[in-house]
C-alpha cells in the first residue's frame, strides 16, 4: 500500500510537469490561428474577415501567467474551452465524439498484436530453431519495416478495391443509424478489419521478438531445469514457469502502448478515412487551435499516466519482488 | 526437450483461431459494401452525395456566423438577397426581387420577394434583414461604411452609408439572411451551434447527423418548390484528397471540388459518357509579390524586367497542369474580362516572356551583368528569396520555374518553403523578400486594385497588414478607386477602371502570374443539369456563392 502511495506522489508530479509542457509548447509556435486560417484560405477570404474572426474567437491577450492559472483551473474543472478549428463546439465535445472510435481501433489492434505477438514469441523461444522461430521473426520484421502508409494503401487496394472484401472507408456505412444491434455491430466490425489488420501487421513483430528474447533467457534458468527434472508437464513449465517470468517487460510495453492508443493512429485514419483523434490533432496543430491541442495532449498525458499506474498495480500482483521492496 | 503435447495443444488452438478468423473474413465479405449509400440508385429519390476531403468528421454546427459552420450552411440552408455567379458575372435576384442604388452611391434599397417563408412557416420580412445586419455588426464587426439599416415597409429595406460606396451591393446582396424570431432569442449567437436551422433555403432539414455523414432534406416551405427537384443532399467526410478521390472515381459520390491529379485518365476515362470536369479560371489572380520597401524592388524598371524574364506559359502549363490562364499587364483575372482594356492588354510588353529584353532593361536600369552574374547598384550580387508555404506543391513548382528563368538573366533566386504560418507571418509584417501570393477576388476588380495599389491599405513594415503585403501605394490609384466606388453608372465606373489598368501598367505594383482555376468534377449518371463551359450559370465549386444555383438546377435521373 505504501508503495502505491509513493507511486501516486510521483504520478502527480509527472502530471503537473506534462500539463505545464502542454501549455507552453503550443505557444512557442509562430503565427496565430486567424492568420493561419487566412493563409490556408488563399484568397477566398476577404481581408476584413481577419478582424471579424479575431473578434469572434476572442483570442486571449492576457499575460501568460494569468492564462496559465486559468488553464490549470480548467484542467481540474474539465472545462477545456471552445475549439477554434471547430468553432464554436466545446473541446470536450470534439474529443468526446471521436475518442470512442480511437479507443476501439487502437485497443483492438493493440490487443490482437500484443496477445498474438507474445504467444508467437513464447512458442518460438520454446521451440528454438523450429519453423516458427526461424521463419516468423524475419518475416514479421520485414513486413513491419514497410512504410505504414504504403502497406495500408496496398491492403486497401488489394482487399478493398480489387477484391471488394472489405469497405474502403469510414467506421460504418453512411446512413446507418448507430445502435446496439447485431447489424450495426457487424458493420462496425467489417469496417474495423482492414485498419486494425494493417496496424497489427506492422506492430506484431516487435512484440514477438521482445517476448522471444526474454523467454530464451528465462528458459535457461535453473528453476526451469528443476521443473523439468520434477517431471511437470511441458505446457505447465512453458506458461506458468517460463512465460510468466518472461512476461514482465511485455507488460510494461503494453502499458505504454495502451496509453498512446488515445493519441490516435493518424496514418490509419488518413488512409481509411476512419474517424479519430489523430487527424483531429493534426488539424489542431495546423490551425494553431490551442484549446483543442491542449485538450488532446491532456487526454493523452492522462491516459499514459493512468496506464502506467495500472501497470504498476499489475506488477505488484505479477512480481513478488516488488511487494518485498 | 521439445514439449510435444503442449505444442500439439497449441497447434490445435492456433488452428481454431485461424478457422474463426477465416470465417469472420468470409462473413464480413458478404456484408461489406452492401450498404454503399445510394451508389447507382436512380429511383428518383437518390440523394446528391458530396464529399468533403478536408473534414475527417463533422460537427453539428449550422451557425452561419461561425467560419467553421457545417458544409452547405451557406449554400443550401441560408440564402442571400442576390446570388452572384463568378463564372458569368451575373446577378440573380434571390430573396430580393429588385434593388436600387442612390445616385450619390450613399444608399441602397432592396425590395424583398413576396411569399418567402422560413422553414418553420413564418414569413420573411424586412425586419429579418435589418436584424441580420445588426447582429453581424455586433458579433463580427465589419461593414464600417454601413451607417444605418432601416425597414421602409414590410418588404423594403434601405441601407445608408457614411460615404459613397457602390461595391457595397455585392457585400450586402451576397450576405445570408437570418430569421429574427429565432436569433433574437439566442443568448450568445457567437457560440450557438444552431443544430436545427430555421432558414429559407431549399434543403434545411438535417437528418441522420453522424460524425462522418449527414443528410439535408427538403424545406417544406420553400419559395420555389419547382426547383427542389432533388430529394436531398448527403455530405460525407474524408480525411484527405486520396480517400475522397477514391470514393469519387469509384462512382460513390456525385460531385467533388477536390483536386484530382491526371483527371482525364484517372476519372474521365473510367466512364467517358458520364464523367465530366470543368475548371474555369474564376479564381483569384496569383501574383509574384516583390517587397517594394526593399531595394531593388522599389524600382519599377526592375519589377518590369523581372516580369519579362519569367515564362508564364511554362508556369501555367507545367506547374499548374495547364489549368491556369497566364496574366497580362492589366493584372485582371479572367473573371473580369468585361472590365479588361483589351487595347492596353495587347499593346504592352512587360508581361510577355523575353529574356533578352529583360536583360537589356536591367542593364539600362543600372544593374549590370559581369561574368554571368547580375550585380546590384552597390556592386553586390543580385539575389532574392521566393517564399511559398510548404503545403502548396503547385506554387512551389511555380517558384522553381521563376528561379530557373531568373538564372538566365544572371539573378540568383532561392526558393524557401517553410510552413505557411511562417510565410504568412513574414507577409503580414513585411519582412519577406518576394513571394507567390493570392489576391482579393471580388465581384468587380475594385478589391483587387485596392489590395495591390491603394495607399489606404498601406501599413509600415513591422505592423500587421491584411492585404498589400508588398507595401506599394500610389495616390493616383486612391483617387480612381474612390471615384469607382462613388460611381453608380457603368460608364463612369468603366472610365475609372480603365484609368486603374493604365496606372497598373505604369507602376507594375506586383508581377501578375496567372488566374487560378476552380476545380470541379461530377458524374451525371444520377443527376443532370450541371453547369459547363457551354452553360456557365455557376462554377462547379460546391462551397461558394453560386452553389445554390446548381442545387436548384439539378434533376435526378430516373429509372
Q: Per DSSP, what share of the residues of chain B sits in E-state strands of 2 or more residues?
A: 15-25%
Distance between the termini of chain B: 72 Å
Overall shape of chain B: globular
Q: Regarding quaternary structure, how should these chains be classified?
A: heterodimer
Approximately how much beta-strand content do the residues of chain A carry? under 5%
Helix segment tally of chain A? 15
How far apart, in Å, are the first and last alpha carbons of chain A? 12 Å
- The radius of gyration over CA of chain A amounts to 24 Å
Number of strands of chain A: 0
Helix and strand pattern of chain A: HHHHHHHHHHHHHHH
Number of strands of chain B: 23
Subcellular location (chain A): Cell membrane
Main location (chain A): membrane
Keywords (chain A): Cell membrane, Membrane, Transmembrane, Transmembrane helix, Transport
Membrane topology (chain A): Multi-pass membrane protein
Account of the protein in words:
Chain A is an all-alpha fold and about 325 residues long. Chain A is about 75% helix and about 0% strand. Chain A has 15 helices and no strands. In chain A, helix 11 runs antiparallel to helix 14. The longest helix of chain A has about 40 residues, at about 180-220. Chain A is globular. The mean pLDDT of chain A is about 85. Chain B has about 550 residues and is an alpha+beta fold. In chain B, strands 14-20-13-19-17-18 form a six-stranded mixed β-sheet. In chain B, helix 12 links the parallel strand 17 (about 385) and strand 18. The radius of gyration of chain B is 28 Å and the shape is globular. Mean pLDDT of chain B is about 90; it is low at about 1-35. At the A-B interface, helix 2, helix 3, helix 5, helix 7 and helix 8 of A face helix 1, strand 10, helix 6 and helix 13 of B.
Sequence-ordered SSE layout with sheet pairings:
The complex is a heterodimer of chains A (325) and B (559).
Chain A: H1 2-27, H2 33-41, H3 48-57, H4 64-77, H5 91-126, H6 131-144, H7 148-162, H8 182-219, H9 222-230, H10 234-246, H11 248-261, H12 266-272, H13 277-286, H14 290-318, H15 320-324
Helix pairs in contact in A: 1-14, 5-6, 5-8, 5-11, 5-14, 6-8, 7-8, 7-12, 8-10, 9-10, 11-14, 12-13, 13-14
Chain B: H1 4-31, E1 48-52, H2 73-77, E2 82-85, E3 90-93, E4 96-101, E5 107-112, H3 126-139, E6 146-153, E7 156-161, H4 168-173, H5 180-183, E8 203-210, E9 213-218, E10 232-237, H6 241-249, E11 255-256, H7 263-266, E12 275-277, E13 285-290, H8 300-309, H9 312-319, E14 325-326, H10 342-347, H11 355-364, E15 369-370, E16 373-374, E17 383-387, H12 393-408, E18 412-416, H13 420-429, E19 434-437, H14 446-453, H15 475-486, H16 490-507, E20 511-515, E21 521-523, E22 527-528, H17 547-551, E23 555-556
Parallel strand pairs in B: 1-10, 17-18, 17-19
Antiparallel strand pairs in B: 2-3, 4-5, 5-7, 6-7, 8-9, 9-10, 11-21, 12-21, 13-19, 13-20, 14-20, 15-16, 22-23
Helix pairs in contact in B: 8-11, 9-12, 14-15, 15-16
Transmembrane segments (chain A): 7-25, 99-126, 138-168, 188-209, 246-272, 292-316
Domain ABC transmembrane type-1 (chain A): 99-315
Protein name (chain A): ABC transporter permease
Amino acid at each position: 500500500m505504501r508503495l502505491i502511495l509513493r507511486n501516486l506522489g510521483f504520478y502527480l508530479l509527472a502530471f503537473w510537469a506534462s500539463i505545464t509542457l502542454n501549455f507552453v509548447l503550443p505557444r512557442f509556435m509562430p503565427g496565430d490561428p486567424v492568420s493561419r486560417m487566412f493563409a490556408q484560405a488563399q484568397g477566398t477570404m476577404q481581408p476584413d474577415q481577419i478582424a471579424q474572426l479575431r473578434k469572434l474567437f476572442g483570442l486571449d491577450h492576457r499575460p501568460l501567467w494569468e492564462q496559465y492559472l486559468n488553464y490549470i483551473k480548467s484542467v481540474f474543472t474539465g472545462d477545456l474551452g471552445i475549439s477554434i478549428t471547430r468553432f464554436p463546439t466545446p473541446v470536450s465535445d470534439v474529443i468526446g465524439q471521436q475518442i470512442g472510435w480511437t479507443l476501439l481501433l487502437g485497443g483492438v489492434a493493440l490487443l490482437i498484436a500484443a496477445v498474438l505477438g507474445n504467444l508467437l514469441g513464447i512458442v518460438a523461444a520454446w521451440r528454438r530453431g523450429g519453423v516458427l522461430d526461424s521463419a516468423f521473426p524475419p518475416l514479421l520484421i520485414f513486413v513491419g519495416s514497410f512504410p505504414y502508409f504504403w502497406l495500408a494503401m496496398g491492403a486497401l487496394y488489394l482487399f478493398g478495391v480489387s477484391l471488394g472484401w472489405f469497405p474502403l472507408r469510414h467506421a460504418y456505412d453512411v446512413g446507418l443509424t448507430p445502435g446496439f444491434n447485431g447489424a450495426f455491430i457487424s458493420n462496425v466490425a467489417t469496417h474495423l478489419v482492414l485498419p486494425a489488420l494493417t496496424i497489427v501487421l506492422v506492430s506484431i513483430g516487435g512484440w514477438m521478438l521482445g517476448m522471444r528474447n526474454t523467454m530464451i533467457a528465462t528458459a535457461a534458468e535453473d528453476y526451469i531445469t528443476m521443473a523439468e527434472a520434477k517431471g511437470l508437464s511441458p505446457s505447465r513449465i512453458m506458461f506458468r514457469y517460463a512465460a510468466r517470468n518472461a512476461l514482465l517487460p511485455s507488460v510494461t510495453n503494453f502499458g505504454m502502448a495502451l496509453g498512446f492508443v488515445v493519441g490516435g493512429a493518424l496514418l490509419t485514419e488518413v488512409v481509411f478515412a476512419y474517424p479519430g483523434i489523430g487527424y483531429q490533432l493534426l488539424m489542431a496543430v495546423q490551425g494553431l487551435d490551442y484549446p483543442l491541442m491542449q485538450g488532446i495532449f491532456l487526454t493523452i498525458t492522462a491516459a499514459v499516466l493512468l496506464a502506467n499506474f495500472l501497470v504498476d498495480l499489475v506488477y505488484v500482483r505479477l512480481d513478488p519482488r516488488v511487494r518485498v521492496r | 526437450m521439445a514439449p510435444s503435447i503442449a505444442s500439439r495443444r497449441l497447434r490445435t488452438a492456433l488452428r481454431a483461431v485461424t478457422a474463426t478468423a477465416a470465417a469472420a473474413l468470409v462473413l464480413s465479405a458478404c456484408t461489406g459494401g452492401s450498404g454503399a449509400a445510394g451508389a447507382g440508385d436512380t429511383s428518383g429519390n437518390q440523394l446528391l452525395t458530396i464529399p468533403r476531403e478536408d473534414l475527417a468528421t463533422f460537427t453539428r454546427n449550422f451557425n452561419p456566423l461561425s467560419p467553421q459552420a457545417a458544409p452547405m450552411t451557406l449554400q443550401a440552408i441560408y440564402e442571400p438577397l442576390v446570388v452572384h455567379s463568378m463564372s458569368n458575372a451575373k446577378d440573380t435576384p434571390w430573396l430580393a426581387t429588385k434593388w436600387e442604388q442612390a445616385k450619390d452611391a450613399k444608399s441602397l434599397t432592396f425590395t424583398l420577394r413576396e411569399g418567402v417563408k422560413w422553414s418553420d412557416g413564418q414569413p420573411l420580412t424586412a425586419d429579418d434583414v435589418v436584424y441580420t445586419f445588426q447582429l453581424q455588426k455586433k458579433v463580427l464587426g465589419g461593414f464600417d461604411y454601413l451607417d444605418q439599416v432601416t425597414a421602409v415597409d414590410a418588404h423594403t429595406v434601405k441601407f445608408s452609408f457614411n460615404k459613397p460606396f457602390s461595391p457595397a451591393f455585392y457585400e450586402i446582396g451576397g450576405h445570408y439572411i437570418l430569421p429574427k424570431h429565432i436569433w433574437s432569442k439566442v443568448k450568445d449567437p457567437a457560440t450557438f451551434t444552431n443544430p436545427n436551422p430555421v432558414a429559407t433555403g431549399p434543403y434545411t432539414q438535417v437528418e441522420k447527423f453522424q460524425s462522418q455523414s449527414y443528410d439535408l432534406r427538403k424545406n417544406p416551405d420553400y419559395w420555389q418548390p419547382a426547383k427542389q427537384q432533388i430529394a436531398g443532399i448527403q455530405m460525407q467526410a474524408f480525411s484527405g484528397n486520396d480517400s475522397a478521390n477514391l470514393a469519387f472515381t469509384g462512382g460513390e459520390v456525385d460531385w467533388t471540388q477536390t483536386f484530382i491529379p491526371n483527371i482525364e485518365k484517372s476519372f474521365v476515362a473510367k466512364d467517358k459518357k458520364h464523367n465530366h470536369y470543368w475548371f474555369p479560371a474564376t479564381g483569384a489572380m496569383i501574383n509574384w509579390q516583390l517587397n517594394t520597401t526593399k531595394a531593388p524592388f522599389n524600382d519599377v524598371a526592375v519589377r518590369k524586367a523581372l516580369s519579362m524574364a519569367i515564362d508564364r506559359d511554362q508556369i501555367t502549363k507545367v506547374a499548374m497542369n495547364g489549368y491556369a490562364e497566364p496574366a497580362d499587364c492589366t493584372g485582371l483575372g479572367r473573371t473580369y474580362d468585361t472590365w479588361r482594356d483589351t487595347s492596353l492588354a495587347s499593346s504592352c510588353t512587360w508581361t510577355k516572356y523575353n529574356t533578352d529584353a529583360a536583360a537589356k532593361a536591367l542593364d539600362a536600369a543600372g544593374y549590370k551583368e559581369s561574368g554571368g552574374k547580375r550585380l546590384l547598384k552597390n556592386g553586390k550580387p543580385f539575389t532574392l528569396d521566393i517564399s511559398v508555404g510548404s503545403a502548396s506543391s503547385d506554387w512551389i513548382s511555380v517558384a522553381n520555374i521563376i528561379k530557373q528563368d531568373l538564372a538566365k538573366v544572371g539573378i540568383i533566386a532561392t526558393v524557401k518553403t517553410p510552413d505557411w504560418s511562417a510565410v504568412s507571418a513574414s507577409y503580414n509584417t513585411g519582412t519577406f523578400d518576394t513571394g507567390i501570393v493570392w489576391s482579393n477576388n471580388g465581384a468587380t476588380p475594385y478589391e483587387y486594385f485596392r489590395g495591390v495599389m491603394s495607399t489606404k491599405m498601406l501599413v509600415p513594415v513591422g505592423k500587421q497588414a491584411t492585404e498589400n503585403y508588398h507595401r506599394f501605394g500610389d495616390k493616383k490609384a486612391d483617387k480612381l478607386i474612390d471615384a469607382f466606388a462613388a460611381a453608380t453608372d457603368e460608364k463612369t465606373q468603366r472610365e475609372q477602371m480603365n484609368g486603374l489598368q493604365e496606372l497598373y501598367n505604369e507602376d507594375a505594383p506586383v508581377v501578375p502570374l496567372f488566374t487560378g482555376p476552380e476545380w470541379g468534377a461530377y458524374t451525371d449518371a444520377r443527376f443532370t443539369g450541371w453547369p459547363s463551359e457551354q452553360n456557365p450559370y455557376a462554377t462547379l465549386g460546391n462551397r461558394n456563392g453560386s452553389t445554390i444555383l446548381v442545387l436548384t438546377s439539378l434533376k435526378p435521373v430516373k429509372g
